[in-house]
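Hello again, I could really use a second opinion on something today. Take your time with it, there's no hurry, and the full record follows here:

___
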Amino acid sequence: MEKKTIHMIDVTDFRLSDGSGSAEWFAGAFETLGIDGEMDLVIHNGTAGEHPSIDGCCGGGRGVIISGSHGPVWEEKQWIPPLIDLIREIHARGGWMLGVCFGHQALGHALGGEVVMNPRGREMGTVPVYLTGEGKASPLFSGFSSGDMASLAHRTHVSHLPEGAVRLAYNRMTPNQSFAIGRSFGYQPHPELTPHHLRLMTDLYGSVLIRKEKFVDDKEHLASFRESFVDTPSSMAVLRNFVSMTAQE
Protein backbone atom coordinates (compact mmCIF):
# COMPACT_ATOMS: atom_id res chain seq x y z
CA MET A 1 0.00 0.00 0.00
CA GLU A 2 1.40 3.36 -1.05
CA LYS A 3 1.99 5.78 1.79
CA LYS A 4 -0.15 8.88 2.01
CA THR A 5 1.43 12.30 2.53
CA ILE A 6 -0.19 14.61 5.04
CA HIS A 7 1.11 18.16 5.22
CA MET A 8 0.44 19.75 8.59
CA ILE A 9 0.63 23.53 8.76
CA ASP A 10 1.49 24.16 12.39
CA VAL A 11 0.32 27.62 13.46
CA THR A 12 0.41 26.95 17.19
CA ASP A 13 2.18 30.05 18.49
CA PHE A 14 2.56 28.79 22.05
CA ARG A 15 4.03 25.80 23.86
CA LEU A 16 2.80 23.83 26.85
CA SER A 17 4.92 23.36 29.96
CA ASP A 18 6.15 19.98 28.64
CA GLY A 19 7.54 21.77 25.58
CA SER A 20 5.00 20.29 23.18
CA GLY A 21 2.91 21.92 20.47
CA SER A 22 0.66 20.86 17.62
CA ALA A 23 3.36 18.94 15.74
CA GLU A 24 3.88 16.64 18.71
CA TRP A 25 0.16 16.37 19.50
CA PHE A 26 -0.79 15.33 15.98
CA ALA A 27 2.14 12.94 15.61
CA GLY A 28 1.12 11.32 18.89
CA ALA A 29 -2.49 11.01 17.76
CA PHE A 30 -1.51 9.29 14.50
CA GLU A 31 0.67 6.91 16.48
CA THR A 32 -2.19 6.17 18.90
CA LEU A 33 -4.48 5.54 15.92
CA GLY A 34 -1.91 3.09 14.56
CA ILE A 35 -1.66 4.77 11.15
CA ASP A 36 1.68 6.55 11.53
CA GLY A 37 3.29 3.82 9.40
CA GLU A 38 0.78 4.37 6.60
CA MET A 39 1.62 8.03 6.07
CA ASP A 40 4.36 10.60 5.93
CA LEU A 41 3.55 13.54 8.18
CA VAL A 42 5.30 16.64 6.86
CA ILE A 43 5.35 19.56 9.30
CA HIS A 44 5.40 23.16 8.08
CA ASN A 45 5.93 26.05 10.49
CA GLY A 46 3.03 28.24 9.44
CA THR A 47 3.91 31.03 11.87
CA ALA A 48 7.22 31.36 9.99
CA GLY A 49 5.40 31.44 6.66
CA GLU A 50 6.34 27.89 5.67
CA HIS A 51 3.75 26.23 3.43
CA PRO A 52 3.62 23.15 1.21
CA SER A 53 3.62 23.66 -2.54
CA ILE A 54 0.19 23.50 -4.15
CA ASP A 55 1.24 20.67 -6.48
CA GLY A 56 2.73 18.80 -3.53
CA CYS A 57 -0.41 18.82 -1.44
CA CYS A 58 -3.16 18.30 -4.03
CA GLY A 59 -4.07 14.95 -5.52
CA GLY A 60 -4.79 11.41 -4.41
CA GLY A 61 -3.00 10.30 -1.25
CA ARG A 62 -2.21 13.86 -0.19
CA GLY A 63 -3.92 16.18 2.25
CA VAL A 64 -3.42 19.26 4.41
CA ILE A 65 -4.22 19.74 8.09
CA ILE A 66 -4.22 23.24 9.58
CA SER A 67 -3.70 23.28 13.33
CA GLY A 68 -5.08 25.32 16.16
CA SER A 69 -3.50 28.57 17.34
CA HIS A 70 -3.80 31.25 19.99
CA GLY A 71 -5.99 34.19 19.08
CA PRO A 72 -8.62 34.88 16.41
CA VAL A 73 -8.26 34.69 12.65
CA TRP A 74 -8.69 38.47 12.31
CA GLU A 75 -5.61 39.31 14.40
CA GLU A 76 -2.91 41.30 12.63
CA LYS A 77 -0.26 38.61 12.42
CA GLN A 78 1.88 38.57 9.31
CA TRP A 79 1.48 34.83 8.74
CA ILE A 80 -2.35 34.86 8.64
CA PRO A 81 -3.06 36.52 5.24
CA PRO A 82 -0.72 34.14 3.31
CA LEU A 83 -2.39 31.20 5.06
CA ILE A 84 -5.84 32.44 4.04
CA ASP A 85 -4.63 32.78 0.43
CA LEU A 86 -3.20 29.25 0.53
CA ILE A 87 -6.49 27.83 1.83
CA ARG A 88 -8.38 29.44 -1.02
CA GLU A 89 -5.93 28.10 -3.59
CA ILE A 90 -5.94 24.53 -2.24
CA HIS A 91 -9.74 24.57 -2.10
CA ALA A 92 -9.94 25.88 -5.67
CA ARG A 93 -7.65 23.05 -6.78
CA GLY A 94 -9.83 20.44 -5.08
CA GLY A 95 -7.24 19.43 -2.51
CA TRP A 96 -8.14 17.66 0.72
CA MET A 97 -8.08 19.98 3.74
CA LEU A 98 -8.94 19.60 7.41
CA GLY A 99 -8.94 22.70 9.59
CA VAL A 100 -8.81 22.07 13.35
CA CYS A 101 -9.95 24.77 15.84
CA PHE A 102 -8.16 27.89 14.51
CA GLY A 103 -7.75 26.00 11.23
CA HIS A 104 -11.51 25.36 11.15
CA GLN A 105 -12.16 29.07 11.60
CA ALA A 106 -9.48 30.09 9.08
CA LEU A 107 -11.08 27.77 6.53
CA GLY A 108 -14.53 29.22 7.24
CA HIS A 109 -13.21 32.77 6.94
CA ALA A 110 -11.18 32.09 3.79
CA LEU A 111 -14.14 30.56 1.95
CA GLY A 112 -16.59 33.36 2.75
CA GLY A 113 -18.02 32.52 6.16
CA GLU A 114 -18.01 34.66 9.29
CA VAL A 115 -15.91 34.22 12.43
CA VAL A 116 -16.78 36.16 15.61
CA MET A 117 -16.38 35.99 19.37
CA ASN A 118 -18.82 33.43 20.68
CA PRO A 119 -21.52 35.39 22.57
CA ARG A 120 -21.96 32.39 24.86
CA GLY A 121 -18.34 32.70 26.00
CA ARG A 122 -15.47 30.24 26.13
CA GLU A 123 -15.99 26.57 25.38
CA MET A 124 -13.35 24.38 26.97
CA GLY A 125 -13.00 20.86 28.26
CA THR A 126 -14.48 17.54 27.20
CA VAL A 127 -18.03 18.03 25.98
CA PRO A 128 -20.63 16.24 23.82
CA VAL A 129 -20.84 17.07 20.12
CA TYR A 130 -23.88 16.16 18.06
CA LEU A 131 -24.07 15.23 14.38
CA THR A 132 -26.54 16.53 11.84
CA GLY A 133 -28.05 14.13 9.33
CA GLU A 134 -25.30 15.13 6.90
CA GLY A 135 -22.71 14.56 9.61
CA LYS A 136 -24.00 11.06 10.29
CA ALA A 137 -23.64 10.29 6.59
CA SER A 138 -20.18 11.86 6.22
CA PRO A 139 -17.17 9.53 6.10
CA LEU A 140 -15.34 12.09 8.24
CA PHE A 141 -17.46 10.92 11.19
CA SER A 142 -17.31 7.19 10.60
CA GLY A 143 -17.39 5.59 14.07
CA PHE A 144 -18.49 8.82 15.75
CA SER A 145 -21.93 8.63 17.34
CA SER A 146 -23.96 11.79 17.83
CA GLY A 147 -23.33 12.97 21.39
CA ASP A 148 -19.83 11.52 21.65
CA MET A 149 -17.29 13.51 23.61
CA ALA A 150 -14.73 15.86 22.10
CA SER A 151 -12.06 18.14 23.57
CA LEU A 152 -12.30 21.87 22.88
CA ALA A 153 -10.65 25.15 23.82
CA HIS A 154 -11.89 28.25 22.00
CA ARG A 155 -13.63 31.61 22.40
CA THR A 156 -14.29 32.46 18.74
CA HIS A 157 -16.44 30.42 16.38
CA VAL A 158 -17.72 30.20 12.82
CA SER A 159 -21.04 32.02 13.21
CA HIS A 160 -22.06 31.77 9.54
CA LEU A 161 -20.89 29.07 7.15
CA PRO A 162 -19.49 29.78 3.70
CA GLU A 163 -22.03 29.65 0.88
CA GLY A 164 -22.51 26.06 -0.21
CA ALA A 165 -21.09 24.59 3.01
CA VAL A 166 -22.91 21.80 4.83
CA ARG A 167 -23.11 21.76 8.63
CA LEU A 168 -21.94 18.41 10.02
CA ALA A 169 -21.88 18.90 13.80
CA TYR A 170 -23.05 21.23 16.56
CA ASN A 171 -23.79 21.56 20.27
CA ARG A 172 -25.35 24.09 22.62
CA MET A 173 -22.30 26.34 22.82
CA THR A 174 -21.23 26.22 19.19
CA PRO A 175 -23.76 25.82 16.37
CA ASN A 176 -21.11 25.01 13.76
CA GLN A 177 -18.74 22.47 15.30
CA SER A 178 -17.96 21.03 11.87
CA PHE A 179 -18.74 21.72 8.25
CA ALA A 180 -17.84 20.52 4.78
CA ILE A 181 -17.55 22.32 1.49
CA GLY A 182 -16.21 20.12 -1.27
CA ARG A 183 -13.04 18.45 -0.01
CA SER A 184 -12.50 21.07 2.68
CA PHE A 185 -13.57 20.17 6.22
CA GLY A 186 -13.66 22.28 9.35
CA TYR A 187 -13.62 20.65 12.80
CA GLN A 188 -13.76 22.97 15.83
CA PRO A 189 -12.71 20.37 18.46
CA HIS A 190 -9.15 19.22 19.05
CA PRO A 191 -9.04 15.53 18.05
CA GLU A 192 -5.29 15.47 18.71
CA LEU A 193 -5.41 16.55 22.37
CA THR A 194 -5.17 14.03 25.20
CA PRO A 195 -6.49 14.77 28.71
CA HIS A 196 -2.87 15.34 29.75
CA HIS A 197 -2.36 18.07 27.16
CA LEU A 198 -5.74 19.64 27.91
CA ARG A 199 -4.79 19.82 31.59
CA LEU A 200 -1.51 21.55 30.72
CA MET A 201 -3.44 23.99 28.54
CA THR A 202 -5.79 24.67 31.45
CA ASP A 203 -2.78 25.33 33.69
CA LEU A 204 -1.35 27.73 31.09
CA TYR A 205 -4.52 29.83 31.06
CA GLY A 206 -5.53 29.24 34.67
CA SER A 207 -5.37 32.85 35.87
CA VAL A 208 -7.26 34.03 32.77
CA LEU A 209 -9.97 31.41 33.31
CA ILE A 210 -10.46 32.54 36.92
CA ARG A 211 -9.88 36.29 37.02
CA LYS A 212 -10.50 37.65 33.54
CA GLU A 213 -13.11 35.34 32.03
CA LYS A 214 -14.63 33.93 35.26
CA PHE A 215 -14.92 30.63 33.43
CA VAL A 216 -14.36 28.97 36.82
CA ASP A 217 -14.83 30.49 40.26
CA ASP A 218 -11.48 29.88 41.95
CA LYS A 219 -8.44 27.59 42.12
CA GLU A 220 -10.44 24.81 43.73
CA HIS A 221 -13.01 24.95 40.94
CA LEU A 222 -10.19 24.98 38.38
CA ALA A 223 -8.64 21.89 39.96
CA SER A 224 -11.96 20.05 39.77
CA PHE A 225 -12.49 21.18 36.18
CA ARG A 226 -9.10 19.90 35.01
CA GLU A 227 -9.89 16.45 36.43
CA SER A 228 -13.06 16.19 34.32
CA PHE A 229 -11.23 15.58 31.02
CA VAL A 230 -11.46 12.14 29.43
CA ASP A 231 -10.11 10.42 26.34
CA THR A 232 -12.07 11.10 23.17
CA PRO A 233 -11.33 8.13 20.86
CA SER A 234 -14.14 8.73 18.36
CA SER A 235 -13.11 12.38 18.00
CA MET A 236 -9.50 11.34 17.46
CA ALA A 237 -10.72 8.90 14.80
CA VAL A 238 -11.78 11.91 12.70
CA LEU A 239 -8.07 12.20 11.86
CA ARG A 240 -7.90 8.60 10.65
CA ASN A 241 -11.04 9.11 8.60
CA PHE A 242 -9.61 12.22 6.97
CA VAL A 243 -6.38 10.45 6.05
CA SER A 244 -8.37 7.57 4.54
CA MET A 245 -10.46 10.01 2.51
CA THR A 246 -7.37 11.50 0.87
CA ALA A 247 -6.85 8.27 -1.07
CA GLN A 248 -9.54 9.46 -3.49
CA GLU A 249 -8.30 11.25 -6.58
The CA atoms of residues 105 and 180 lie 12 Å apart. The first strand starts at residue 4 and ends at 10. The chain has one domain: 4-193+231-245.
